[in-house]
Design brief:
mainly beta, 0% helix, 7-stranded antiparallel β-sheet, 9 strands, 101 residues, elongated
Length: 101
């Protein structure tokens, strides 16, 4: 059984027990969060739309952290114009506990 959830403008395919890095959530480590469900697939088939209106995916927050730093380097040729920046995107690691209809 798996579900497609939505968070931060992105969709993720999850199963029970998965650990997932999603956009930063305002939740403490150990807190329980729930996500909106777009689709559920199980033994009976695929359910979407009104069939999953009341469905819920529950997860616990494992960590609040940042990804590895990326370098953003902009320059203009022959103009001695350079700009170097670093960026670390924050994320929340969650463990999927339960998928319920």
């Amino acid at each position: 059984m798996y579900a497609i959830i939505e968070n931060g403008g992105k969709q993720y395919k999850v199963s029970e027990g998965d650990v997932l890095k999603v956009e930063k959530l305002a939740a403490e480590v150990g807190a329980e969060v729930s996500f909106g469900v777009v689709m559920i697939s199980d033994d009976t088939g695929v359910k979407v739309g009104k069939d999953v209106e009341n469905a819920k995916v529950t997860a616990t927050v494992q960590a609040q952290d940042k990804y590895k730093k990326i370098i953003v380097f902009k320059y203009k040729a022959k103009k001695n114009e350079r700009k170097k920046q670093g960026h670390r995107q924050p994320f929340t690691a969650v463990k999927i506990e339960k998928i319920s209809l």
